Amino acid sequence: MTLRNMRPRVFAASLAFVLAWAVACSPTDDAGPSSPASTTPAGGNTGEEAPASSSPLPEESSATSATRSAAAGPLGDWLAANLTAGDHAVTVAGDEPLDDAGLSIDVAWALTSVGGHETEVAAIGRWLADPAHMDAYTGQAGGEIYAGAAAKAALAFQTAGIAAGLTDGEGQSKAAELAAVVEGRIQSDGRVSDESSYGDYSTPFSQALAVIALVKQARDVGGEEGPVAYLAASACPKGGFPAMFAGAGEIDGPEAECVTDIDATALALQALALAGGYDAALEANLAWLLSLQQPDGSWGLEGPSVNSTGLAVSTLAALVGSDAALDREAATAAAQLGVAWLEGVQNADGGLPIDASGDSDLRASAQGALGLLGVGIGNLTG
Fold first, then answer.
1. How far apart are CA 355 and CA 135, in angstroms?
2. Domains contained in the chain, CATH given
3. What is the pTM of this model?
4. Considering only CA atoms, which of 134, 184, 170 is closest in space to residue 30?
5. For burial by CB atoms within 10 Å, which of 24, 117, 250, 252 has the most?
6. How many angstroms separate the Cα of 330 from the Cα of each of 51, 290, 319, 343?
7. In the chain, which residues have pLDDT < 50?
């Protein structure tokens, strides 16, 4: 699975993870509903912004570090070469190419993590800042609000490389405006819902994006009926978070079902760790995530997935570098094994395939880069 195709999900300063990190159902992108026709996500619970962590994972051999550095450079070059017009990403739906803002953010985050592609990242920032692109992505062009997309966009404009393409202060201004939009979608029970004629497509993945975006903007996400509590309560009894919230009929499925999802679980863990105060939930759901890792180091519910493995590893790197109480030795070992698998499936052209083999794929390459380079979404933003 991936940052979702319902409306693509997401990911993504630097954790020195043996590498250096570089945040919808196969390649994932962002969050939030998308129209049915769309193909394209520290201060306790007060919302106070936590400082970015730079805690390294255990040191590895110089040979391993060199291998990862060698993997990062070609991956960054491949991603940059596959941008359309040098400033955005495109998804092909059928035979029709569609501009994809969510995927453009993923590529920008990956290039930021790799380093050396400041020009391309700044160009993506300028493309994203165009209301014709951003308002279509968040739904505001049609008088709607896709909460997950708005949250991902808020995080994007807090990324220094993206903001570098804008005028002074414009990135933070846009991030604050979008965070206010997300905050305005918090319901009385804490769910961060979409406002759309297509229905509410908000999910645990988009809820996690919203929590991360709000915390990074020092907004209040706490309380018994706040966004973090709602996210934590959505976990399945057996561990892990579902792809959909239960109990919303046609969109979310029968309330009795709680089908766990790797991507939703990984991003929810990042959100809970960043918000703070949920160590018990972190421990239980991290155990579920670790239990799904395959012997070869990959993750995937229907076979190995570069997107899911990348998101899982980036989450483990973020957790190890956080203040959360967890088994860091187990998380580190799992992350290292996951990185080795990602290195092993990298193609000769520098890109990454969707699964264990095949042609390089833009979404898989962008989202897999986060794991390959070891950084969480919250660590990419200021």
1. 32
2. 62-380 (1.50.10.20)
3. 0.83
4. 134
5. 24
6. 24, 8, 11, 20
7. 1-29, 31-65, 248-254
